[in-house]
Amino acid sequence: MPDLYRTFQLNVQKHHLFEGNDQVILGISGGVDSITLANLLVRYFENPKQHIVLAHVDFHLREDSNNETQVVKDFALHNNLVLETTDWSKVSENGIENAARVFRYDFYKKVAEKYQTKKIVLAHHANDQAETILLKLARGGDWRQFKGMSFTRDMGHLTIVRPLLTVSKNEILEYAKENNLNWYDDYTNFDPEYTARNLIRNQVLPELTSINENAVENIANFGGWLSDLENNQLPEMLRIWLTETAPDLPIKESQLQDFSHLLENPKKPHGSLNLSDKKTLVKNNGSIDLKNN
After folding, report:
1. Which CATH architecture has domain 4-230?
2. Which of 104, 226, 245, 271 sits in a 20 to 30 Å window from 158, CA-based?
3. What is the pLDDT of residues 1-12, one digit of tens each?
């Protein structure tokens, strides 16, 4: 199994999630995912107290929720970190999951404003990604909705970052045990009747994993492929058009990317790109043409 801290570092660097001098807000529940991410952040920053603010919401949806809050307080105290907490008292009978999510994100925004930072770090991982994609597939919709979560997402003037999207739940659990971390298991996460996501987590994904042990990774990767497809529609459409127009013409990926950038540049209504000694791709306002040299 790969080194989790190294995977975390590579994700931060590859996707430009934050820098060593940034201050970040970490949404922390007290569960193993966010406690593990908190530990990784403490290792990452040279002076954690100056760079990490923990933000925790006690939803009071369970009688033992105060135990979860205590785990977070103990972690903050042990690592000398700033902790901001709030309580959710307006419990709705309908749409609890969505209402709780809205309240949580609003709290993160307030904490970010208080500390004048723009980065909110969350502990979503590969299993969460797979669950999200399966949920969206089951509910239906446009294919772009099936891509799942991204490493970064703009939320107004703030940015949500998810450094663990390529990390499986098993990797997180193994890391937490190896590093003797303390966390609290929310028993409602294991009840398949509690939410549709729980049903997928506790029944659907285990069945799929029995078919292929890499099912979680494959489903999560599927979301990444859809994101790449959405981000690269223009080069792909250009490739299809060129293949139909000049099937014997060799095309490089770099040429497709370069001409796509030209097409998307409103400041350059005209331009061209030599594809070979015999063919040139031409942009003329909104039209494309393939001309002989």
Report:
1. 3-Layer(aba) Sandwich (3.40)
2. 226
3. 569 999 999 999
